[in-house]
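Weekly structure sync - notes
Attendees: PM, LS, DV (DV joined late)
Agenda: review two folding runs queued last week.

Item 1: First target. Sequence and structure tokens pasted below for the record.
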Amino acid sequence: MHHFTLHTSKTIRDITIPKHEDQSLWGAWAPELAMEHDFLLHGLLGISALHLALCATDPQERQHRTVTAIQHHDRGLALFRPRLGRITAANNDAVFAMFCLVVFHAFGIQRSGDAPVERLRQVLTLLRGSMAIAKGDYERMRRSRWSALRPPLPFGLALRLPDEMEDALSALQRGVGRTTSSSAVDAGTAEDETVYARSIEALRENLLVAHLFPFTAPALMLFPMGSPDAYWDLLRAGRPLALAIIANYSVILHRQRVNIWMGDWGKVVVEAVGQALPQEWRECIAWATREIAEHNASPQARQ
């Protein structure tokens, strides 16, 4: 808990809370909530242990800390699940904090291994599920101190992204028609075309927020939350345009790579997509590939 208060909380704060908002939420208020809710206490201890594991240079220490993290995380989840059907004014703030910790745990525990695109799909699917449940009591959350996680979002404004981002989105939009072409391999349906169009629009909104409000929770969440359920099925099936879309989203993760929870997620996903895509689809990830190449010398992660 001492490590969480001094160190881990800062890594979570840096990627979720704008600098002009209350900076004590994770370092002071979350531990106070944890003293009243055992599931959150185990969540904090687990994420702190996982942070220590990610920072460890000794393999044995890393393994020991990871096992401890999983034990606390599993125990916290066992206590947490029964609360999901009984979210009240008394536990709402702790429940929302636990949702956030579950997502950070997923980002950290899935950091290494094969099939990075599938691992990221699983993490973002978990984020979608967690936030969808939390969204059910959105008004209460909006009136709580957790409202600091939401900067003023520029919805409804005719704002233009930087040219390179607009070009990337245009390339994706050109790919939509190609997915239903009779000459395309694994040609999709008209419904797929609608799914892709909605997903690209969700990506546009996410890129805009990430451009205006980097290192905030919406900068990570808008595309996963705003894209249709069917998109994630297309991604799981390895459809080229679905892969290209997730590669462009991953640039957002790459730009936040100084944070230990993001690490090299963006880089490995873009590279994996680049290896999987047929040549005729490479235009759709040209911007993402350039971003990774230009910033390949990753700065030291904030630990």
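Item 2: Second target, run right after the first with the same settings.
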Amino acid sequence: MSVLAAMLVVLALAGCRTPSTVPPTSPSELTVLGAASLREALEAARSAYQAETPGVSLTLGFDASSTLRAQIEQGAPGDVFLAADTSNPETLAAEGLTSGAPVPFATNTIVVVTPPDDPARIGDPFDLARPGVRIVVAGPEVPISVYAERALGALAGLPGAPEGFRAAVEANVVSREDNVRAVAAKIELGEGDAALVYATDARAVGLRIVPLPEAAQVTATYSGAVLADSARPSAARAFLGWLVGPRGREVLAASGFGPAP
């Protein structure tokens, strides 16, 4: 075989090389554990971030922040934790389960909600104490319950509050749910007359809103952290930085969230 013929054979074989001989690019797969109230916002954030960051894939998991924190403490895998409060991420940080300090990334407000047809005729928040009103709440450790307690305490101290307001509201509780989205679902289905939820949940589910008076308004601060056991800490930090930054704030604002304090 001539030298020229040999060279042609080599070139032909090189041209027949299949793509399988080239190592594929493996995407960075991040698991983001988020508060239940973040569902729509994080789904929008995932679409935006994956479009802007080729090679990164986000898997989302949702539940009450307190439940997710307990799961992380028990060894549940994850890369980023996004809570509806500051205390759950701070607890994980104190336990050495985060990489770096938690950072706030959004705010939310608390509102009273009813089904769209408002069968109990809730005119103002003081009606929550009226006998026979069915109130749905979340478990005591769920952030929405902490915020709701603050709002109810403030309402009880306002002029015009019914005597024994807090006790009357507690007596009207008919259901305790695992997270705020489950609370909102109960109201949507008409299985309760009223609840206190985040304004973003009321918007997402389509509930009637009864605003709190200014003196009883409560701001919920959301914060997040990269988890210490993340297998992809650099990619996790990049996503959290994006969420805290201008583009992330824009996506969160489209779902009704306010800026971090």
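Discussion on item 2: Residues 145 and 253 are 23 Å apart (CA to CA).
Action: LS to circulate a short write-up before next sync.
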